[in-house]
Amino acid sequence: MPKNSFTLSRRRLIQTGAALGGSLLLPGLMNAAWAAGSDKPEQTTIRVGFIPLTDCAPVVMAALKGFDKKYGIRIEPVKEASWASVRDKLVSGELDAAHVLYGLIYGLELGIAGKPQRMANLMTLNNNGQAISLSADLREKGIVDGAGLKKRVAGSAPGTYTFAHTFPTGTHAMWLYYWLAANDIHPFNDVRTVVVPPPQMVMNMMIGNMVGFCVGEPWNARAINDRIGYTATTSQQIWPDHPEKILGTRRDWVEQNPNSARALTAAVLDAARWLDASPENRRETAKVLARRAWLNTKEQYLAPRMLGDYEDGLGNRWQDRHGMRYFGDGEVSWPWHSDGIWFLTQFRRWGLLKHEPDYQALAARINRNDVWREAASAVGGITPPGETLRTSRLMDGTLWDGRDPARYAASFAIKR
């Protein structure tokens, strides 16, 4: 076959397939079309940073299971030690993209998480799957929930108790602040908060540097297994099916490499669908992620919560209806504008933003639904949601639908 014999554009392939009753629109052929000719990825090796957390699974498995090769690229996962490191390497160009905190990307765009940068969210990597852990010392004092913690904090000098999250504008900071405030504890006036990288949470709690932390798995399960803490609440109890990590990058990288951005999103989206396809795929992933190259932990810390099997370290066990989800028929990974806007409302609530932002314009600029649609088309069998706003009810009964963010941000009794 001549070298250039398969250089039909995507448009010509679709037109030809339609003329023949769709007989050309086979998954393998469609993927080949997206990786050839005018649609060929500009950059074929893509460095994608990740932090050792269970929700890096779509990026890691896209590389290890060969989903990347289907779209003409090679994903090179790069292990990082902290979210600050991910931020710095994304900005410098050492990383092309990353498994990254939703709020970190929005914070960079706004210049409150570092020097202002033009950022892009290609897709959401997961819903749910984080938690707030409290120390065994608090449990021994009879504190087993937020109400008990409130009484303890109220009887102490401000700042006596220290809590950790993972990044100032990150998701874990927002879950921690929201949960504390919902229990009538002001996260800035009543307690002290510090930043600790995820893999260092358990050790820091063990040596007494804090009495609580909010982080992703497997570090909450590890705290229980090591008997140094217990799960006070899961993040899905704060907001069922909340957005968590995203596939983030710089907007200029997308503009310079539109085909590579599409191919990367397609590969990770394909891997996310595989992850949600069966419990066996989750178990296989847990075995892989436990290895030294990835999370460097025990499979027993990973698999149960990946499968929705929870225990809290207080004797309670349950099968979580809102366990970690990676795909959910595409609804998980769709870059919902209302998800990004929610983080903006919390930045405003806690004084990280001094002035009201243009909520809708920011979300529309950062969340690349156009790239997601092209990637979904390349993967095949995925129907994009018809809207960019969704409705959610959080733990305190507040309804979030993204339609009046300024009013929502101002509505909280506890704020800064």
Automatic annotation (TrEMBL):
InterPro entries: NrtA/CpmA_ABC-bd_dom, TAT_signal. It is found in: Endomembrane system. The keyword Signal applies. One of its GO terms (cellular component) is endomembrane system. Residues 1-35 form the signal peptide. CDD domains: PBP2_NrtA_CpmA_like. Keywords: Cell inner membrane, Cell membrane, Membrane, Signal, Transport. It holds the Pfam family NMT1_2. Gene3D superfamilies: Periplasmic binding protein-like II. Its main location: membrane. PANTHER family: ALIPHATIC SULFONATES-BINDING PROTEIN-RELATED, NITRATE_NITRITE BINDING PROTEIN NRTA. Belongs to the CmpA/NrtA family. This is ABC transporter substrate-binding protein.
